[in-house]
Amino acid sequence: MASIAVCPGSFDPITYGHLDIITRGAKVFDEVYISVLNNSSKRPLFTVEERMELIRKVTKDLPNVKVDTFHGLLVEYAESVNANAIIRGLRAVSDFEYEMQITSMNRLLNDKIETFFIMTNNQYSFLSSSIVKEVAQYHGEISELVPPEVEMALKEKFK
């Protein structure tokens, strides 16, 4: 049986921190679904379709990574793609409490799907999409934070 994982997030936009988690997850699992969602508590800069296209571009060299989107409960989506795992990235201790709550609820909803936490590389521990967007908005240097395709897309948004 193939090991299939879902890596959910808003990815608005995808950063090198996200790519670190995705690349490392792709080494562990046979298939990884990058599942783009619209977080109702955030106002996205990029549409879901734009985010998916950017993710496809920057993960094109990872043959076992697929890009998708979903609405509804994560565990229901994971079941629909036959996933047996969820990948979540952790940057700092502050992420842990929130992630533990989500993981506990997901386990209550479906105890057959395991959650795996991957600690981000230290160089990305401060990095968030929100910070990248703020720096990009003021035309700051972001080339060390996001892939070139994402940098160009951000510059286009903030012309």
From TrEMBL:
Keywords: ATP-binding, Coenzyme A biosynthesis, Cytoplasm, Magnesium, Nucleotide-binding, Nucleotidyltransferase, Transferase
Location relative to the cell: Cytoplasm
Organism, scientific name: Mesobacillus campisalis
Record lineage: Bacteria, Bacillati, Bacillota, Bacilli, Bacillales
Protein name (Swiss-Prot/TrEMBL): Phosphopantetheine adenylyltransferase
Pfam families per record: CTP_transf_like
GO BP, one annotated term: coenzyme A biosynthetic process
Catalyzed reactions per annotation: (R)-4'-phosphopantetheine + ATP + H(+) = 3'-dephospho-CoA + diphosphate
Positions of the record's site feature: Transition state stabilizer: H18
Gene for this chain: coaD
Residues annotated as binding ATP: S10, F11, H18, G89, L90, R91, E99, Y124, S125, F126, L127, S128, S129, S130
